[in-house]
Every structure is written in structure tokens, then in C-alpha cells.
Amino acid sequence: MIVQPNNLSEITTKLYKLTLLFPKKEPLRYKMREIADEILADFIALDHLKSPNPGKYASQTGPREKDAIFALESNLDILNSYFEVAKWQNWADYFDILAIQEDYGKVKDCLAVEIRGLERNWQQEKRNPAAGPAPMVNKEGGLVKSDFESRKEKITQILKETGKIQVGQANTYFPDISKRTLRRDFQKLLKEGTVERIGDKNNTFYKLKIN
């Protein structure tokens, strides 16, 4: 990507200095900083995943890269809407705000290139859905399980032991996985007929489906 982590760090610092001019009790002052911090963190994570040696998560780079890109896109859109509000509040110079907004716009332009690359991959998978993504292999030549497949095995074992479980409870078994990801996992398990859902709203549970 054209934008480098150190460049984005400088932009984040500029945003912090700019928001110092906002009223101390103004929520936008802290919301913009929070989103800027998340953008920087996700950008660094994405940059690391795209490095030649992403470390122990190398076999999971694809899904993690998608998550980081989508989080970045969402947060950049949110931050842009905050800039639009801030520009008309007379808290800081309009053109100073605009300059930083344009800096984040360049980040989004770079991100758009990544998204187009992902879209090409998705289109290829749609044209040949049976093939799916190319399987990953380890250095011994064996297949590497995807994140979802690994969690599926553990979720299945947990349900055999507990009978039923909620997403929040499942999160205690996967402390490094977000609830959003686990919800997607259970939706996939529902679609493939591995589990069934019982209850609703705050009393929603999942259990193994008996065929």
C-alpha cells in the first residue's frame, strides 16, 4: 500500500492535536480519537499480514486480511462523517480539518485497491464455486485447516459436553475471537445443518442437530 504505518501515525497525531481545539466535554472530540486509533491499529495489522513473514498466523492470513480491510473501510466512513460535522462547528479552522480529512481520504483510496483485489478473487470463486479457495498446505505437505474448521471442531466438542451454548458463553472458550466472528460461525453451522437454534433474543442457544 502507498500509505505506510508511520505516515498514518503522523496523521493520527494531527487529528489528536486538532481535536484539542474542540470543547472538552464534546463527545465528538473523543469519538474521533477512538476511531482514529482503531484505524491505525487495523492498518498496522493489515500491513503485517501482507508482509513476507506474517508469523504464526500465516495460514489464516486470508480471513484476517478481509476482517481488517472491512473494519478499516467501516471506520474510515464513520470518521469521514465526523469530519463533516466538525467542519461546521467553528471549533477549529475549516481548512485545517479539511486537510486531515483529505489525508484519510488518501488512506481510503489505497484501501479501495485492496478491496478490488478481493472482489476479483470473489468473482473467480463465484464462477467456480466447487473449487473454492486454493487449499493451504504446511511444510510437510499436509492440509492446513481454516480458522472456521478449527473452531468448528472445538464448538462441536463443547456442544457434546454441554448440550447447548450461547454465543457469549462460547466466547469464554475463544477469548481471542470476537463475538461477531463467533456469531458468523454459528450462522455457518446453522446453514450446513450441524447445529440448530433454540429460543430467541437474549435466550438464544445453539445445540447439535440430531439427524
Strand content: under 5%
Computed over alpha carbons, the radius of gyration is 21 Å
The shape is elongated
Along the chain, the helix and strand elements come as HHHHHHHEE
Q: Please tally the helical runs, counting DSSP H or I stretches of 4 or more residues.
A: 7
CATH level 1 name of the largest domain: Mainly Alpha
Low-confidence stretches: 131-141
Q: Tell me the number of strands.
A: 2
Largest sheet: 2 strands, antiparallel
User: Which fold name is given in CATH as the topology of the largest domain?
Assistant: de novo design (two linked rop proteins)
Helix content: 55-70%
Termini separation comes to: 49 Å
Q: Which CATH-level-2 architecture of the largest domain?
A: Up-down Bundle
Tell me the count of domains: 2
User: In the CATH hierarchy, what is the superfamily of the largest domain?
Assistant: 23S rRNA-intervening sequence
* Class based on secondary structure composition and strand pairing: mainly alpha
Q: Which strands sit side by side, in order, in the main sheet?
A: 1-2
Mean pLDDT: 80
Spell out the key features of this protein.
two-stranded antiparallel ribbon, 211 residues, 7 helices, Arc Repressor Mutant, subunit A, mainly alpha, de novo design (two linked rop proteins), elongated, 2 strands, 2 domains
Q: What would you note in describing this structure?
A:
With 211 residues, this protein is mainly alpha-helical. It has seven helices and two strands; from the N terminus they run αααααααββ. It has helices at 5-19, 27-49, 61-86, 94-127, 147-162, 167-173, 179-191, and strands spanning 195-198, 205-208. It has a two-stranded antiparallel ribbon with strand order 1-2. Helix 1 (5-19) crosses helix 4.
